């Protein structure tokens, strides 16, 4: 037992660091979008596709992985490592050889495909070590993912404004390091044997009532999450300019980093809370707070830093706090032999939804301006909360968080 206890914390630290480094790739193109738009004369739609291409690539990669049960056939550390290194290569190519929008968007798509082998695989690796405390473990992992996703904004704020290659090469280097680090991971005691290809596994996943409700909660959460993460830097820049704040662009980049990165703390604390009080309760509270923030964003727009800073930090804390718990729920509800595929399918559909909400925001902004542009996102938390409260009332909830629901 002592060996398992020591091994699980080693695995958590190792995979957490590797995930943090690898996921810096996600918003590397988004962070330097303003610079690339000026250099390459990109339209607003083309600039948005620097993010949406990653979302779409992730969906394609995840659906292929789930359909072919790749996450359950290839050893997790090899799938994670190979994917991280491939994503690092695609990002470095943009910095070294690309000078126009289309090839950059295509390489961002490739990056998204590779990240489908990183994010769900990391969650499966944590589930293999943590039977009890799984919510905390996956919460820490999502926290690492969150800080990693925020990191390109920090790199840009402290020296990358006007220097997109610094951000792109920096994130590529970190991702490659993460891919090498994860090779030291050892399979956990709850890691099932690799499973044969079984097309019927998808049918079982999509007809399981508990899994469907947990996924519906996740889909509502995702409708809001990535749209906010993508557009919060520009929303903040517009808000700071409206309030007459000096150095608005640099300060907006720092605040965007803080808004996203503080979610890492939220994911960690929510993971611990969900293991104690139940996943359905914690996810419902988190979506309630973040959904309310979608409505209040228009009220605080243009306010002083004394108001806007704590508001976006609170929003950032709660908006991703529940993310890991949907994955933990599926890992507890799905057939043990195909947990990897169930998690991959969950994330594939979730990220497909984000493409629509990310594209919706600039359309709304053109009609009503940045002040009220986040209001349509409140639909996601409303639907997600309803699904999780329904799950809490069913017998399947007894399998969540050791019977806590």
Provide a concise account of the structure shown.
This protein is an all-alpha fold.
Keywords summarizing the entry:
405 residues; mainly alpha
Structure description:
The protein has helices spanning 2-22, 28-31, 33-40, 44-67, 70-73, 76-97, 101-115, 119-127, 134-160, 164-181, 200-206, 209-242, 248-277, 279-300, 305-319, 323-333, 339-368, 379-392. It is 78% helix and 0% strand. The radius of gyration is 20 Å and the shape is globular. The chain has 405 residues and is mainly α. The mean pLDDT is 87.
Helix count? 18
Largest sheet: none
Low-confidence stretches: none
Shape: globular
- Estimated structural class: mainly alpha
Order of helices and strands: HHHHHHHHHHHHHHHHHH
Write the layout of secondary structure elements.
Elements: H1 2-22, H2 28-31, H3 33-40, H4 44-67, H5 70-73, H6 76-97, H7 101-115, H8 119-127, H9 134-160, H10 164-181, H11 200-206, H12 209-242, H13 248-277, H14 279-300, H15 305-319, H16 323-333, H17 339-368, H18 379-392
Helix pairs in contact: 1-8, 1-9, 1-10, 3-4, 4-7, 4-17, 6-7, 6-8, 6-10, 8-9, 8-17, 9-10, 9-13, 9-16, 12-13, 12-16, 12-17, 12-18, 13-14, 13-15, 14-15, 14-16, 14-18
């Amino acid at each position: 037992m002592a060996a398992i206890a020591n091994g699980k914390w080693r695995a958590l630290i190792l995979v957490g660091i590797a995930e943090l480094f690898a996921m810096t790739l996600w918003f590397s193109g988004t962070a330097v979008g303003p610079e690339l738009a000026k250099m390459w004369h990109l339209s607003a739609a083309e600039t948005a596709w620097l993010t949406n291409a990653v979302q779409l690539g992730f969906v394609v990669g995840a659906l292929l992985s789930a359909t072919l049960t790749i996450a359950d056939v290839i050893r997790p550390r090899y799938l994670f490592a190979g994917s991280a290194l491939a994503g690092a290569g695609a990002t470095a190519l943009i910095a070294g050889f690309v000078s126009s929008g289309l090839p950059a968007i295509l390489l961002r798509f490739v990056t998204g495909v590779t990240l489908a082998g990183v994010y769900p695989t990391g969650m499966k690796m944590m589930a293999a070590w943590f039977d009890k405390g799984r919510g905390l473990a996956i919460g820490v992992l999502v926290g690492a993912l969150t800080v990693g996703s925020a990191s390109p904004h920090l790199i840009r704020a402290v020296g990358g404004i006007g220097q997109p290659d610094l951000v792109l090469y920096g994130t590529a280097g970190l991702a490659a390091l993460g891919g090498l680090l994860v090779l030291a991971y050892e399979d956990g005691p709850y890691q099932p044997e690799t499973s044969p290809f079984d097309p019927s596994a998808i049918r079982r996943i999509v007809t399981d009532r508990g899994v469907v409700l947990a996924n519906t909660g996740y889909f509502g959460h995702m409708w809001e999450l990535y749209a906010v993460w993508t557009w919060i830097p520009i929303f903040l820049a517009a808000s700071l300019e409206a309030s007459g704040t000096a150095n608005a662009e640099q300060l907006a980049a720092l605040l965007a980093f803080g808004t996203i990165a503080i979610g890492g703390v939220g994911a960690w604390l929510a993971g611990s809370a969900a293991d104690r009080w139940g996943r359905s309760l914690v996810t419902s509270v988190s979506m309630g707070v973040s959904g309310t923030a979608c409505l209040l964003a228009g009220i605080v727009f243009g306010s002083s830093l004394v108001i806007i800073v704590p508001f976006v930090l609170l929003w950032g804390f709660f908006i991703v706090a529940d993310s890991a718990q949907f994955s933990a729920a599926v890992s507890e509800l799905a057939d043990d032999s195909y947990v990897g595929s169930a998690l991959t399918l969950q994330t594939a559909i979730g990220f497909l939804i984000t493409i629509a909400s990310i594209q919706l925001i600039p359309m709304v902004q053109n009609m009503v301006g940045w002040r009220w542009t986040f209001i349509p996102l409140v639909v996601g938390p409303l639907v997600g909360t309803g699904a999780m409260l329904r799950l809490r009332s069913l017998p399947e909830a007894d399998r969540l968080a050791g019977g806590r629901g």
